[in-house]
Description:
Elements: H1 7-17, E1 22-25, H2 32-35, E2 44-46, H3 51-65, E3 69-73, H4 77-91, E4 96-102, H5 121-126, E5 131-134, H6 141-154, E6 159-165, H7 166-169, H8 191-203, E7 207-211, H9 219-228, E8 233-235, H10 258-265, E9 269-273, H11 279-282, E10 296-300, E11 314-317, H12 320-330, H13 342-355, H14 362-374, E12 379-382, H15 386-394, E13 403-405, H16 416-426, E14 432-437, H17 438-444, H18 448-453, E15 459-464, H19 469-477, H20 492-499, E16 502-504, H21 509-519, E17 526-531, H22 532-535
Parallel strand pairs: 1-2, 1-3, 3-4, 4-6, 5-6, 7-8, 7-9, 9-10, 10-11, 12-13, 12-14, 14-15, 15-17, 16-17
Helix pairs in contact: 3-4, 3-16, 8-12, 9-12, 10-13, 14-21
Amino acid sequence: MSATITCGERLVDMLAAYGVDTVFGIPGNHTVPLYRGLSDGPIRHVSPRHEQGAGFMADGYARATGKPGVCFLISGPGLTNALTPMMQALADSVPMLVVTAVAARDQLGMGEGHLHELPDQRALASQCARFSHTLMRPDELPRVLARAFAVFSAERPGPVHIELPLDVITADASHVDPTPWPMPAAPGAHPEAVAEAARMLASAQRPCLIVGGGAVASALEVQELAERFAAPVVNTVNAKGVMPETHPLAVGSSPSLGAVREVIYGADLVLAVGTEFGETDYDMLFIGDLALQAPLIRIDIDARQLSRNQRPTLAICADARAALSQLLAATEGAGRDTDPQWGQVRVAAAQQAISQEEHTHPEFQALFAAVKSALPGVRLVGDSTLPTYYAVWQYEASAPRHYFHSATGGGTLGYAIPAALGAKLADTETPVVALIGDGSAQFTLTELAAGVESSLSVVVIVWNNNGYSEIEQGMHAHGFKPVGVDIPAPDFCAIAAGMGCKTAKPENLGALAEALETAQSAAVPTVIELRQEHFVSQPAGQWYGQGA
């Protein structure tokens, strides 16, 4: 008689078959049967110190690889602790699979006071997920996982939540075929739409490309199309690195800046790929919505996005890479009517104007240059902190997936440390730096212990400006005495050292460069505390809004 394979074990088998190699989670009484499948299997388990850390690690892993980050969490508080990372991942279209336990089937929704019980856990999770599903029978497992991975590969990605009732986790699933279902191909564009887009591009003299996070896997196609039509390329935060930073058609910076907007406004055709035109990328300084006058072609895998924020002249619902490949094929030999100097001249002028923008800061530019010089090819993971805001328009990534942060979209605090750990676990060869403020660091500092446990040589730069400086400035701007923002910072280096990390407190850029280089040879995280007054000789001022 063959041994019984439980539904929990079969789930783990199937995840491995789908290519999952890492799971982030904290085991609890309700998930012990789920963990049986991890005991001797090929999937690595990483133990964060809080479920929020698990979610952010999964996010960083996913952004670094393009593969879904996976969490195993207990019901109730395990899920609620992970809702913030799920919300951040939803805002930025990051693939994430969150697997939780839930009460036994006959106890669902009864409100009888069972351990970890929520009135409707699935409904709660659904507000931060592409979909949330309660697995009522082991037989459902293959098609529910197929649906999840279809979202990750052929739709606008985001978190998916699957909950297993306690009696389903332990149910016999020996009969369930663990073979993954065929994945759907990412959708291409309708031929008529491609033909019309090709006609519009061929007749344009001053086209401009805007690329968002949906184009992160389309770097080669974006570059080829830009070169064919001599089109300047504007990027959002999640598209940093899609166009090589040294390319003469790469505008860089951010469409929130007036100098970058002038490039867009000078175009007679705008092609926007994989961008939602949201406030956090296009109006971070609150100077007003982007006012497009030229015809607009929008390409997005999510049809709903095509009717949000900016009205397109031509809407193409398709995967970015597929649509751009079709467009390249349809415009072979085109581009002769385009002004060959338009793009490069506008980019050069824009970059000169950006350097003189009132919202740029030379000392932050020097800080970013020091990091990139000490750690070539670095992956920078930012939090909601002052230097990260300046990085939006003053930092350029060396490649796609080499810069991301939480300051836009969800805008959560505490993201950078666990997300950087997740990114390093995904790609151990690339240097990883977390950039986080002293206020944000106190949200997730404990995750450094997980980094020590996993021997991760991540650098954590803590930017210490004595509390919630940005919010304090906002209160001053609104004309009242600040409240709740002047929080004393602990000794970050002492705490980090107590967990087994290396530490440094450089007071100038030269010492910072030395600390960064030393950190790369460490087998544990290195926490580098930077006091703002040592690196910014004059107040940075209010970076956003009127009077900035």
